[in-house]
Amino acid sequence: MTVLKTSLRNFVAHKGRMVLSAVAVLLSVAFVCGTLVFTDTMNTTFDKLFASTASDVTVSAKTDENAQQTGKAPTIPEATAARLEKLDGVEKAQADVFDERVTLVDDQGNNLSPDTGAPTIAGDWGAEEDSVMELVSGHAPRGPTEVIVDADTADRKKLEIGDAVKVISFRGTTEAEITGIAKFTATNPGAALVFFDRPTAQEKLLGSTDQVSQVLLTAADGVTDEQLKKDVIAELGGGFEVKTKDEAADSAADEVGGFLDFMKYALLGFAGISVLVGIFLIVNTFSMLVAQRTREIGLMRAIGASRKQVNRSVLTEALLLGLVGSLLGIGAGIGIAIALMELMGLVGMNLDTSDLTVKATTPLIGLVLGVVVTVVAAYLPARRAGKVSPMAALRDAGTPADGRAGRVRAVVGLVLTAIGGAGLVLAARADEAGEGAQFLSLGIVFSLIGFVVIGPLLAGVVVRAISVVVLRLFGPVGRMAERNALRNPRRTGATAAALMIGLALVAGLSVVGSSMVASAEEQLDKSVGADFIVGSDTGQLITPEAEQAVKDTPGLAHVTDYKVVSVELSTPDGKKTETGLAAADPTYAEDLRVETVAGELSAAYGEDALSVPEDFAKDHGIGLGDTVTADFVGGKPAELEVAAITTQDTSVDQGAMYVNIATVERYLPEGKMPANMIMFGKAEEGKADQAYTALKDSLKDYPQYKVRDQADYKETLRDQIGQLLNMVYGLLALAIIVAVLGVVNTLALSVVERTREIGLLRAIGLSRRQLRRMIRLESVVIALFGAGLGLGLGMAWGASTQQLLALEGLGVLDIPWPTIITVFFGSALVGLIAALVPAFRAGRMNVLNAIATE
């Protein structure tokens, strides 16, 4: 009880000093809890949607994941519904029509489909839709030129009753007028929906009025979904896919589950970084508090307090700090989740706060995380406090073992750094990506830990070097700031380490991103001979109408089709491999200059010929002139001669196997031919600008496809990588904010620790302005020290990663010096901002009171 009272008294007495540490705990816990609440809410939203739209049993066409990508929606005979309605155990059989491969545009050609990756779904307005959606205005479609759109799309795109729209599918383009707007009774997580009447939907989406997409069955009373499924399979036999309500909902959830899991663990990863940075802040806080209470601890020991009691007193303070920070963090986490939901709403994914999901485990995880992290971080300072002898504490002698501990720390840090450096070197020199990735992970972890451990040793060297350039310009004030930063190298090292972690990741990712862009641009210049590339940013296949529009464009010397054909290859070593062949026109050999190690790529576009990549040839013992059997999915087998073996030393189409489209057409029926994934164009001599303009004009009615020349393509790469990096930097900002709080806390506690010294300095003539400048300069040099370590370490990580990625064709190392330099000098600004409050408080000290402080 005495220990608890002492801890409470100290906690309250130092509440001002604990605030920033509590904020670090709060932010870390809030990020973790916010991530969990946000992803759980998304799961709840999708689960409710899938559960509300799934029937007891769903019957659809059996699909093969290796089936040819024709772009057309799979169908089953409409008569299946009538047949199943007569089956015992079926209360109702409802045929349904839909296609998820459509694009919605207005009459001006503007894309109305979501730009978030969510699908646009066209279908028929029937009993099934009417049960999950509510018609809020207008009326249902009454003919081939009338449609309903969902309310979210109408709100987002400012659509009204009477507006003209076009629905583009692989069956053609349908012009219609909006006659109704419908709203989901459950939350719509971002898809755009458009509905025709049944006959129009069948004809325009499926190509036949006697076909449907699926049949939705309602089980009669007393019949389970599983039993009904068995009866349906017995009735229909093969060729159909039959799922219960739970299976259909699980299947739909699996399609989005990978994305949700990636988002969840990515956000938790960044939360973990902020937790790690927060640990340094807490260690520093308690180390300084223990140091400032050395005499107090000595008195406690002198009157009978044991080491365990002193240790327990410090840990109890940490426990209180962890509890307060965690509880506040849990509440803030819910706020972060709601903010993320609002942010997703701005980009088109509608998440309703009524679905906000806070599982019982989420607050528990936040509470345990905050408390454990705080107590663990405070353990070393607590242990150090307990080891101080009463007499040493009373005379402020400190811990006798400090010097020896510093030497041991330096040796351990050097060893860990050496191991990390060796790992990075081995990763850069690895011949296989898997082996290199293991060395890279080892190198990053050990070099980071090594730099953290060796930080105090580096402080003496790096801070002096920075001071020569920065602080010496400010005369005696600058030299005092330098001595203050070097007074306690362990404290300076720990404070800088918190900033170092975030900036190391920023620098490493910047190097990797910049190198990826530079490598891709080099490959484009080196390999791509086509003037124009036509394709979709969302992976949509090119419709026959759009394909014809490209081919009809004036000013093009040639147009190249590019498809991916699913096959099973039987190689001379007796093995079978399911893969995709890159089927293209012979002009593709001009559009993509692929280097070969044997043969010529143009030969692969001969009759019954193909090319294989170098690694595939080695793995299966294939040589030039050998024959492989290609069993085309949905077609006939073919004997193809290996006419070229391509190099792996590229990032464009690496590993592709090329075959002539004409060859594929001999073995695949017309209805099974895949649609174009992408198309290439070559302008007539001297007509590049005119052809570029004409090609864009040809596709103005198909906004889902982009026309790019090589300059456009490079710009797109830079934008995509830049957007990804900006998102990562935004997430890393939390860790950097926590690190800045660490600098503020260190300076604030340092000012308290040096109260008497500051009073003496003021007494002998140091002005308030000079005092504040001294503290600001001390903060700047600590920030620059952390930035220098972080940026240097990050560039080493990035360079090693790039060398590893060179195995995949990304062979250009590009250091983004403008970013690196901006971040370094930006760190000085961070140091100035962090010092504002401590410097202000120091300047307001009463000189006499400060001198009288013991």
TrEMBL record:
Which top-level group of life is the source organism from? Bacteria
Give a GO cellular-component term. plasma membrane
Q: Does the keyword Iron apply?
A: no
Q: Which residues form the ABC3 transporter permease C-terminal domain?
A: 270-390, 731-846
Subcellular location per UniProt equals: Cell membrane
* Statement: the UniProt record of this protein carries the keyword Disulfide bond: no
Q: How does it sit in the membrane?
A: Multi-pass membrane protein
Q: What is its main location?
A: membrane
Q: Name one Pfam family in it.
A: MacB_PCD
Keyword list (alphabetical) reads:
Cell membrane, Membrane, Transmembrane, Transmembrane helix
What family does the database annotate? Belongs to the ABC-4 integral membrane protein family.
Q: Which PANTHER family match?
A: ABC TRANSPORTER PERMEASE YTRF, MEMBRANE COMPONENT OF TRANSPORTER-RELATED
Name the UniProt record assigns to this protein: ABC transporter permease
Source organism (scientific name): Streptomyces xinghaiensis
Q: What is the lineage of its organism?
A: Bacteria, Bacillati, Actinomycetota, Actinomycetes, Kitasatosporales
